[in-house]
Specification:
934 residues; mainly beta; Phage tail protein beta-alpha-beta fold; Immunoglobulin-like; Maltoporin, Chain A; 3 domains; five-stranded mixed beta sheet
Amino acid sequence: MKINHVIHNFYKHFFLFLLFALCFNFSLAQSDSTRITLVVENESLKNVIDSLETKTNATFFYLEEWFGDELISIAFENETLPVVLEELLSKTELNFYILDGDKVILTKNNIIYDELPNNFFIKRDSSSILTTAGTDQRQLRPIFYSDRLVANDNRVQKIQVGKASKEVKTSLAKISGVAINASNGLPIPDLVVQIKNQNIRTTTDETGYYELELPYGINRMNTRALGIEDATFELYVYNSGTVDLALNEGLEQLDEVVLEADAFRNVEEATTGSAQIDSEESKNIPLVLGERDILQVARNLPGISSAGEGAAGFNVRGGKTDQNLILLDDATIYNPSHFFGIFQALNPYTTKGVDIYKGNVPAKFGGRLSSVFDIQSKEGNTEKFSGEASIGPVTSNIALEVPMKKEESSLLLGGRGTYSDWILKSLDEPDLANSSANFYDVIAKYDHKISDKHSISAMGYYSKDAFSITSDSLYKYSNRLFSLKWKHAYSEKNRGDLILSNSNYQFNIDYDGEANTDFLLGYKVNETELKYNLRYLYNSKHTFDYGIASKLYVVEPGSIEPSGSDSSIEARAVDQEKGLESAIYISDAYKVNDKLLIDAGFRLSLFTALGASTQNIYQEGEPRNDGSRTGSEEYGEYEFIKTYIGPEARFSTRYLFTPTFSIKGSVNSGYQYIHTLSNNTTVSPIDTWKLSDLNIKPQQGYQYALGLYKNSEDNMYEYSLEGYYKQFKNAIDFKTGAQLLLNENIETEVLQGDGKAYGVELLLRKNTGKLNGWLGYTYSRSFLKFDSEYADERINNGEYFSSNYDKPHDLSLVTNYKFTKRYSVSANFVYQTGRPVTYPIGTYRFNNADYVYYSNRNEFRIPDYYRLDLGLNIEGNHKIKKFAHSFWTISVYNVLGRNNPYSVFFVTENGEVKAYQSSIFSIPVPSITYNFKF
């Protein structure tokens, strides 16, 4: 009986199960066979779901918060419910599952499984979640989360990414997004994004964009950047998707964050000879008269120097000052300094930072041989009105950030000025009675976010200097810049920047002497450029940068006109010069594997000298002078005079021996079509600018570099050793006794020859801790060679000689010690070999007249340069809720009172040759500056 009862119950349950299965399959078949015709125009997804419920009698289960505001336009004709749902939800992160034929369960991100994949229980690596399911796609295993994998910390944000699918074509999911500052909506560049316990990390670009490839499942993601709180996210990765990050500011963690990001760049990027300076870094470095100056900080880095104290411009790795491309928001700034180079012509509170390339230069930059200083100004606060200002002994600065439309647009305003004229007139010193020195600069920048894919920014800048170091001459120069940038994203992979810029630099001398020889003398350089830079993220291994650019130069080499009705000076001007420089470029950052990275690029530049112009023609093979000139040729307005084509190679590579130790090498070549002619010994910036033409060839440069980079103790210490070798062709110099100003036949005074430079740069840097700073040392040499069969075209008998800026030894020590978060002391020590100079070594008498006999050019050197600066920094309390945060800087420049000569010159008095030296600061210069931020 018991056996029969068991058999009876078995068959009873079996038939019930069979009946349930038949009913379920019948119901499902009914659902699949139900045909739907539906036309939707600009309806929300919620309304479409409601319509489907009415047409099919199916019940949908979901959360309304999953539906966005996007409107849908779609049409179906005689389709089944699964087909309709598949198409309807294809562009969302929603999946569906049909239960019992009339119950539709919607899920966000994940998927409901009613059976396990084949081979699910086969033992496999714990990190593997894919099984093979064909040649071009893979089957995704269900992702199960255990409590030990999921963080219970409320500070860890949990984010679901992507729409789950049973089949995928890749083994990794692509995650991308934009990181912004939660307080003002501005993008966060150079944010380090790292996956915990995996060798996966990247940094955001200037727009805050980042991209990673992650395994499916749980990934712990950490972020860190300068001035931003460290954040941790738990990503539940179902598929490729977007993760935008809104991060909070972290004012108390600045010292810990900035150097971590720099350390990763130092070891991991492929570019040699690059450096990045944040404007905040100049805050704790004692500089002259307490001025914050990122360009002066740059001069303390290996490989960057100047001709001397008070010299404008930079000499980078043995190059001339005109071989540096200095950009402010993509517009060229020809003279980025005030008052003999003592102050920078940039407001420190509107300046975000500078990227310096002195080794391998990215292919998007061109037109200069030695370096690129890419200076970026800040973006204004889009959330609230804020500002920053300082009051010093000589200058005052202010910057204001004005939200124009919350989270969309802002206006940044900055101004600087000096009251040194008032100080000079207040001093009881007769020698300074007629002296004057004043300057100012202003900047305005407007940023507007049109949409997630489009934004524009416009910048305008103007600076002006006027100073008099003699009683009869007033020197004036000005910079005027404008740039307009449109940033847009065609897709997540392809983005571009369209940039229009204009730069104008003008220099004048107003001479007012005792005789009737008063005059106004000046020159001007103007350039207008249009360029289109694009970036294509092809895949995880290849990132392409490509673009096109064209620049029009208009140079007025010099003019003079009488000042006043009694002046006997005759007005005249050197003919205006024009030139068109264009280029196309492409580069590929190729990640071969986790250790090897290659950045290869090519740039093709073209330069055409344009009329109207009169070009002299000289007998070939003869020195250019009045005697060898055979005629001239006239060219009409914008007529082509001469075209030069310059292919340029940009190649660099990096190999990681370990995550903290790498070796890099690079090869770089370039062409330069605009040049300056200067004797480099005067304090006033009276250079002559010249474009390449029929008689002046473009300069060519080649650089080879190799370096080792090492970080240690969690990036607390940074070490780098880099060597380089450079060659120049058609380097420009002038003949002995040349007349450069207002010379209509300037090519007769110019020589073109060869140059070479080589050196080794050492940087030791401590990034964190109470004591931080760096020690930089450079051994470098720079030589020029001008040889010819004609004596007047040879210098130093045709042998290599030291350039004006050849300084074999250059050492800088920058330190800062923090006693507390509010009090710190800093020191800055600089030592440089004295630069070359030409001395008179004898006298001789000819035709009853005395003459001075000079040595070979640059055979001697002025005394070595060294200087020590000290500073005390006092910050106000760090309370968050206060009107303004203050910062005092007390410093002494040139503590040792060293009388460092800038130049040496010689004067004949009563038949005797006397030597004199000019110095800028020969005594200690104390200063106190009050800074505040609100």
